[in-house]
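As practice, study what follows.
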Amino acid sequence: MTTPIFVVMAVFRPDAQHLEAQLASIAAQRDAAPHLVAVIADAVSGTLVTETADRVGLPVSLVPSDEELDAVRAFEAGLLDVVDRAQTMDEEPLIALSDQDDIWHADRLSRGISALRDKHLQLVHSDARLVAGDGTTEIAPSMFRFERRKRKPGLRGLLYRNNITGMTLLMRLRVAQLAVPFPPQSGVHFYHDLWLGLIAAATGGIGYIDAPLVDYRQHGKNAIGAVDRQAGWLRGKPAGDKRRLPDKMWLRREAAAYALARYLAQSTHNRIVDAVADGNLPVGIAHLRPLRPYLRRTFGAGVHLLDAARLAATGHLALARIATGFWITSVGRTVWTLREALGPGRSLAIERFDERLFSLSPGQRPRAPQSVKPPKISPHNHEGQIDPRKSPRWSPDLTAPEPAFVVLVPTLNPSEIFAGIVTALDFGLGLAERGARVRFVATDLPVSSNAASRSFVAKRLSAAARAAGAGDRISIHCGVQSTTIPAHPGDVFLATAWWSAHLAETLIRRNGLDQSRFFYLIQDYEPNFYAWGMEYADAVASYGFDFEPIFNTTLLRDYFAERGWDFANPSALAFQPSIDVARYARSPRTGGGTPRRLALYGRPEVARNMYGTAVEALARFVRARDLGPDDIQLVSIGLPHAPLKMPNGLLLESLGKLPWEDYPGYLAGCDLGLSLMYSPHPSHPPIEMAASGMRVVTNTFGPKDLSRLSPAILSAEPEARALAAALETAWDMPPVTQAEREFDLGTLGVPKERAIELLAAKILPLLHKDAA
C-alpha cells in the first residue's frame, strides 16, 4: 500500500509555465502518490492551480485566503490544513513542501520515503541543483557546495545557520502537529523550514540525502534565493564593504542574529515541554540539551566559543564567525546585566544596608564623606547638550540619478512600528504606486533587519502596485548607522514628527536643495508631550518652518486653528484615521459569553494614555457593580506591564502588544473596552474596538468627541468618576449591532487614498519637473 503524501505549496502570482512544469514533475514521482495542498497566498490564483493540476493529472485541494499571505503564513496555513485532514485518515501521511516554480527529480519522494524507514528520523532533506530561470541552464550542481552548508549541523548548529531548504524536505505528520501554529513574529525574521527543522531535530533527528533531488530555479522573485555565503564571511558584512573592523552596525547585526536564535531556541523548548505535558509527545523522546546555552539567564557563552573553535578546526570558517558573534553577544549580555546590577542596584543595596546599620546606633545617618580635593571636572563637548534627533547623523550623497520622496520616520523595525508610522508608510507607498521613487529613512533606531523591514513595508503595497513595479521604486535606509544615504538636489521631504521637521529643515538649508518647502505629517499636538522646556520649545518651533501641513483628522486641524496657527486653515489637507474599519467589522464576534471580557488599552509608560486614571476608573466600576471573576475578565493590551490585583479578587492581566494579524480576532472576542488618549488626536484603539463589536469608553478632549462616530463609543470627561460611570452605562447596554460596527469616518477628513491622490498631485510635478 502506498504511503499517502501531501505536498504543501504556497502559490503567489506564479508564472504559469513554471507552475505547470513543477506540478508535472510532482505528478510524475516514482513509487509515490502525492496529493497537492495548494495555499492560494495571493488570494486569486485558485483557478489557475486547479486547471493546471487537472491538466497534468495531479490531485489537488485548495486552501483559500481572503488576504495575501507571506511565505511563512502560507505554509503554516497549509500545514494546519493537512493536520486537520489527517485526523480522519486511517494511515498517517507524510508531508512534503514545494515551491511553485522548481522542478522535482522523479525520485524526490521515493528516496525520502526510503530514508524515513529509519524510525528515529522525523524529517529528511536533500541537496538541490541550482538552475537559471529557464529551468535548464545549470548555475551550480550542488546548492550545499555553492552555499558552503554544513551537512549535519545538529540542533544547536541549525541556529547558527539553517541548512534545510524547505522544497527538498519530507517529514512525518508529528513534526507538523508539533510545529503549528508557528511562533509569532513581526514581519519575516525566520522561515518555516528552520522552525520545522528545529522541531524535528529536537524530537528524533534529521536525515540528509547527499544528492540533488530538486532543480532550484534561481530568478529575481525568489523569496530568499541561493547566496554565496563566503562573501564577506569574516566580518559578517556584505561583499564590497570596505570597513576593516567590526563597528556598531556589525554588533547590531550579530545581536539580531543571536536574538533570533535565542527566541527560536526558547520557543522550541517550550513547544516540546508543552507537548510532553499535554501527552502529545512520549516522555524520553525529546533531545533539548543542545539548547541550554540559549535558555540560561546569564551564562552559557562559553559553549558558543567552543562551537566556534570546533567549526574553525573542521574548515567551516563562516559558521565559526557566526558562533563567535553569538559568543560576543552572549558575553555582552552578561556584562551588561552585571553592570546594571552592580551599578544602580549596588548603590541602592548599600544605601538600604547603611540605613538599617545607622538606625542601630547612633540612630542618625552621618553626612556623606567629603572629598579632600574637589573633583576635577573635565570640559564636555557642547554637542552633547543638543538634542541629537534634530541633526542628521548621515551625509546626503547627492549622486542619486533622480529625485525621490523622502519619508523620515523614527523606526522601520516591524516590532517597533505603531499606527502613526504606518500612516506615514502608507503615504510613501501611495506615492510609489503613482510613479515616485521613495526613500524611507529610519531616523531614531537602527534598522535591525533590512530584509524584514522591506518585507513589512512592501507587504502594504497592493497586488496591482507590486505587479506594476512599485516595489522597485522603494528603498530602505538607516539614518542612525549609515554614514551616507543616496540623495538628489530635487528630493522632497515628508517629516513625521517635530524632530524630523528639524531634520528636513536642516538638510534642505545645509545642502541648498531645490525644494525649500517640505511636507509635514501632523498627527498630534506634540508640544503637549513634554513639560515646559527645551523639547516643548523645539516642538513649537517646528511649526514655524516653511512647510505644507497634512493633518491626521479635521479634529486635530481644528485644535491647531484654535491655538492660532495660520497654516491650520480649512483648505489644509486633513484625512481620516488610517483604520480599515471593514477589517474589524467583518471579524465574526466570539464574545458575549460569561465572564464578559473587558480590554484596557494599557500603556503605563505613555502619559497621554492615562494608565493610572484608567485603572482607577476600572476599580470604581468593579466596586460599584460588585463584579467578580465569574462576571468579568480584565485584560490589558498595548505595552507589557505587571499584572494588577483589582477589587473583588479580579486580576488585570497584561498581554502586551498583540501581533497585527491576530489583533482583530482578539478584539472580536472582547465585550467592553476602555481606551484613553489625553490629546486632540483621535487614537485608533477606541475606533478599532467599536468596529470589532465592543462597547468602548474613551475620553473627550477639546473638539474631540468620538461618540459622534457610533453609539458603540461612549465619551466621558477625562477623570476617573466620569469614566467609571460611562463603564456602568456600557455594561447595561445591549450587544453592539452590526450597523453600529460599520460606521463612516467621513466627518474626520477625506479618505486616506484621496489624501494620497491630492498629495501626489502636488509632489509628482516637483519630482518630475526636470524631466518635463
